[in-house]
Amino acid sequence: MDDDGRLLVVIGGLPGSGKTTLLRRVLAGTPPGVVGRDSEQVAGALRAAGVRLPYGLLRPLVHLLHRGRVLLALLGPAPVVVLTDPWTGRGWPATVRAVARWSGRPLRLVLLDVPRRTAEDGQAARRRQVSARAMRRHGAGWARVLAAAGAPGAGPALVVDRDHADALTPAGLLGRGPAGLAGLAGLPAL
Questions:
Q1: What's the pTM value of the predicted model, to 2 decimals?
Q2: CA torsion angle 77 80 83 88 (round to 10)
Q3: Could you give all domains of the chain from N- to C-terminal order, each with its CATH number?
Q4: Is the C-alpha dihedral spanning 94, 96, 130, 139 positive or negative?
Q5: Residue 104's pLDDT band (boundaries 50, 70, 90)?
Q6: Shortest CA distance to 120 belongs to which of 107, 106, 109, 134?
């Protein structure tokens, strides 16, 4: 964490892996100054506003609005931004890293590593399934993310399975100090 407490935490994983569930739990027990960004927040807001398109048609708008919210949060005053994202693409993670660096936010990755079948079951449970083609693309990207997480100089990354993610508490994930995240760097990789 930077001296001024600014930080970006990315919770990455396959679609349906449990990123949103982990984010909700983190946000439920965090100190002021921690904001979360998840595409399901945008989808929910659009539904609440009366937008009734099938999600497949709504997805591009959700992603556009979500990405705008992420960039604004990174550039904004909140000390800590927690973002959920598959993190399997190339362009968007590179953009997020660059904006975080420019805004003085070190990056911490929490990688939720679950089998593809578990992620697909998670998609079915939330009734928002991605296509088989998109899932193959995410799977290939996820293999790349995991390989890069173990590379020298990759930066701090915590790789957890679903059971370990379920056991993480907000205090354990985000640290205990008033700045909020001092303990994250000390967590062991699993």
A1: 0.84
A2: 110
A3: 7-185 (3.40.50.300)
A4: positive
A5: very high
A6: 134
